[in-house]
Amino acid sequence: MLRVRPILSTSALDDHAALLSALGLGCTENHTDWRVFDSGRGKVGLHRTAPGNDGGRQDTSTADDGGRRDGSVQLGFEIRDRDIFVRRTLADGTRAELLETPHGPSARVTAPDGFTFLADPVVDPAVDPANPGPGPNTAGPGPVNPHTRQSSAVQNSPARPGPPTVVQLWHTPDVDAARKVLADIGARLLPPRPDGTGGSRFQAKNGGLVEVHPGGVAGVGLCLEFPAEPAALKTWLTAAGLTAAPAPGPAGSSFRVHTPGGAAIWVRAGGFMG
Length: 274
What we know:
The chain has helices at residues 13-22, 82-91, 146-156, 175-184, 230-239; strands at 3-4, 7-10, 26-30, 34-38, 43-48, 73-74, 76-79, 95-101, 104-110, 116-121, 165-172, 188-189, 200-203, 209-214, 219-226, 243-246, 254-258, 264-269. It is α+β, with helices and mostly antiparallel strands. The chain has one domain (3-269): Roll (2,3-Dihydroxybiphenyl 1,2-Dioxygenase, domain 1).
């Protein structure tokens, strides 16, 4: 089992939770300072952190520094059995080890350049006594937020695109090494996007994508990719009352979606359908 689950550290956790809900993800774990949202095509973890001055810049955090900077994104995955995962990853040639973290047992993977990320055993809400299980397409308990109030109407809109795919954007100085790491943990290399963008794309068997992009400094970004044409996606975002600003990308297909509280998520059209 392998599922994409990046972790976004934020001081505006409720605002980000409401935004993910409005964009079509359902809350499957809610532990006050830690929430998990599922699109059916990958998950996103939200971790509450103290306000800081780093929000919005490209993240350079790894599993070893906790990814706790405000606004940072940490590469992450869900797995079923960490012992099997570590054994198979080591056998394929990538460094992996069992790890005990403050949030529980995990597995740590280390790329050749020292970049690290975690793969956590999946939590089954049905057997997790600490999880209140708010159910799909809700942000769970918390302060009232305009996006929370409108999310039900948004998700029932006939113009709403299908569920988004969660995409982790791995920027690295060593693209070939990152590609091997992803193959060694069980991700499958996909053909390039038709428009030629997106770097090397890998599919996690149980949901979500990872794209490897060249970069001077290792870092991670988060994107939600919708199966829609750019114009249709922009129309739906506007009708849903979401503030969407153009973002770098081909032919106006990418947008930064903002909330009144300052939370932002990158979305783009042309989503993966597999």
